[in-house]
From TrEMBL:
Pfam families: NAD_binding_10. The lineage of its organism: Bacteria, Bacillati, Actinomycetota, Actinomycetes, Kitasatosporales. Gene3D superfamilies: NAD(P)-binding Rossmann-like Domain. Residues 8-132 form the NAD(P)-binding domain. SUPFAM superfamilies: NAD(P)-binding Rossmann-fold domains. This is Nucleoside-diphosphate sugar epimerase. PANTHER family: PRESTALK A DIFFERENTIATION PROTEIN A, PTHR43162.
Length: 251
């Protein structure tokens, strides 16, 4: 039985990774800022982090936030993992972190570099955006009388449980370096995804495509965050929405 530490183990992705690993009979430690017995702020490290990684064979690093601090957290985790003799560090990143010049993406790319240079056995998986994120974005945007979208942009949402399954599989294998990206089953315009969301939630809003400016917008418009050749996910956005609504998607 393998002892595995999952950082961010109470989050959207980490919780599902934890469930899958435990279902396979593995001992899993969940690290988050507010969950005992491994309540740790990764940015600060210290004795609590050392205790969390002690005796662990594999770390799955899911903890992340767009509010900043990912690089510091990764540095503390890598140092603790080296001290503990961890054999395998698995990191979940985002498709396009090397092509989209957005602050959060730059931080994720910097973490990838820290992992690669750590001296530890490592595996890095990049995935496209989760269905859940689009629902959050569209839910926020649809509070206005119109639903504004960046003109010309597309997305390739993926089911988070499919990413969790892949991460769990990678955690149980040998370090593999950077593995092929995991993309959702369809590259769709944001407008088509937004209209699917409005239909599923019974909301009526005009959808307005707004041309924007700047390098980040151009990178998204040009598909820097997409992986059309790695459209290996199975669950479509409509299927996800139907499941959320408690429907099986049949008429």
């Amino acid at each position: 039985m393998t002892t595995i530490l999952v950082t961010g183990g109470t989050g959207t992705l980490g919780r599902l990774v934890t469930e899958r690993l435990r279902a396979g009979g593995h001992e899993v430690r969940v690290l988050s800022r507010h969950t005992s017995p491994y309540a740790v702020d990764l940015r600060h490290g210290g004795a609590a982090l050392d205790a969390a990684v002690s005796g662990v064979e594999t770390v799955v690093h899911c903890a992340s936030t767009p509010r900043g601090g990912d690089e510091e957290a990764a540095g503390q985790l890598v140092d603790a993992a080296r001290r503990a003799g961890v054999g395998h560090l698995v990191y979940i990143s985002i498709v396009g972190v090397d092509r989209v010049p957005m602050g959060y993406y730059k931080a994720k790319l910097a973490v990838e570099r820290r992992v690669e240079d750590s001296g530890l056995g490592f595996t890095i998986l990049r995935a496209t955006q989760f269905h859940d994120l689009l629902v959050q974005v569209f839910g926020s945007l649809s509070k206005a009388p119109v639903l504004p979208l960046p003109a010309g942009a597309s997305d390739q949402p993926v089911e988070v449980d499919e990413v969790a399954a892949r991460l769990a599989e990678l955690a149980l294998g040998a370090p593999a370096g950077r593995v092929p990206d995991l993309g959702g089953p369809q590259v769709r315009t944001l407008e088509s995804l937004a209209r699917a969301y409005l239909k599923a939630t019974g909301r009526r809003r005009p959808v307005v495509n707004i041309p924007l400016w700047g390098a980040t917008y151009r990178a998204f418009r040009d598909g820097g965050h997409l992986a059309p050749r790695r459209a290996v996910g199975k669950v479509t956005f409509e299927e996800f929405l139907a499941r959320q609504a408690g429907d099986d998607g049949r008429d």
